[in-house]
Amino acid sequence: xxxxxxxxxxxxxxxxxxxxxxxxxxxxxxxxxxxxxxxxxxxxxxxxxxxxxxxxxxxxxxxxxxxxxxxxxxxxxxxxxxxxxxxxxxxxxxxxxxxxxxxxxxxxxxxxxxxxxxxxxxxxxxxxxxxxxxxxxxxxxxxxxxxxxxxxxxxxxxxxxxxxxxxxxxxxxxxxxxxxxxxxxxxxxxxxxxxxxxxxxxxxxxxxxxxxxxxxxxxxxxxxxxxxxxxxxxxxxxxxxxxxxxxxxxxxxxxxxxxxxxxxxxxxxxxxxxxxxxxxxxxxxxxxxxxxxxxxxxxxxxxxxxxxxxxxxxxxxxxxxxxxxxxxxxxxxxx
Length: 335
Description:
The chain has 13 helices and no strands. By secondary structure, the protein is an all-alpha fold.
């Protein structure tokens, strides 16, 4: 089981590279994969018996399918099958990534036959794990459905902003914020620097911030082959579908633990590296070279900090923070 978890974490990093390349170019793909692979939560999920790595694999694979879906192709059926199979890992994967699968379906399904095949793929993906569960579970599907209902209800009454006590909801949001800050803080800083540099380059050079054909919301290296991508397949739409539903589930529902960061780590990392990725395709050669050097150094520094925190650090937070800033929200043991 540990080997499977390790393979899932490795596969998640590889698919993050593919997804990042599809959305922002090769540099964004490689940089995103390096950040995700080196994140302490990824290392931990890959070195213990954990299913979190599989959630990242499913999310990034659906991003790729949603981006690459074309009319009359099988992307939609494959996306639905992957989504339903993911329900066997954790049921909440289905609502978390349903919008990504929907994008692939809308972009690819054009005939009744394709629609039926897509429905069949979904039913097949669900049956692969649900049928054995029904046969193994004493009492059958009714007992299993009751257990699922109890689990969801208990989680909601502990931390959901809709039904839980205010203290539970606040603790849940604080836990989510603390883990997100320490896991995504460095790459968010890189993203902010890139956004400022992008705006500065536009002002100084008096040119658009990048080649008009290489906009931040399209993939630079992809041959269009005469096909114009619809709006729901633009980078912004796909990243919104990949980030917003998982964030809504963990903030409005329950943030069960640090591993839940892996639900949105990959798409948020890709989003943060897009400004730097666009600078690498600026019309000015000097801007391109400078951006390549600075952005690569910042990403390498982020990877180094991540590795150090997992290998040598006493915890995900620096010891100095825990010792000298005990009153800080993020250093409290509650979160």
